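Good day; I would like, with your permission, to put a structural problem before you. What I wish to show you is a protein chain and, alongside it, a tokenised description of its three-dimensional fold. Here, with my thanks, is the record as I have it:
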Amino acid sequence: MKELLNENDIKRALTRITHEILENNDNIDDLVLVGIKTRGEYLMNRIASNIKKFEDIAVDTIALDIKFWRDDSRKTDVEPIIDYDFSNKKVVLIDDVLFGGRTIRAAMDGIITNGRPKTIQLAVLIDRGHREFPIRADFVGKNIPTSQKERVTVRLAEFDEIDQVTLT
């Protein structure tokens, strides 16, 4: 196991991602952050906290469970209720690792079922390549070229009691 990012590296990456989001979205009044459960939700909360600290604005945040929209695993029977209208919003979708792109595709399906956003941008802590769909991140903490056999593990203090990214 090789440590790729430690607590300070993750904090710096999220600070940089936050600044890039703010630079690319002049007016953040219609900005909404959507974190893919589980770790994407925690990253979303950290980015929202950074935005509040940097701009003194609390942006809308939505935690999204994408199981219903997955195409590569067993779906849940009941479509989740998302009590938010994404119409004309600038959505920043947030996840921990971008790999094949199936999770992101499912998340976009979930968002679009609840309105037509102006844009959907993607922020990820780690981009490891190996796409199955033509999806790319707009904001990346770190690009980590990997083989198919390798595994990237993101641990966050809110869920795993430590901030760390490892490669095994």
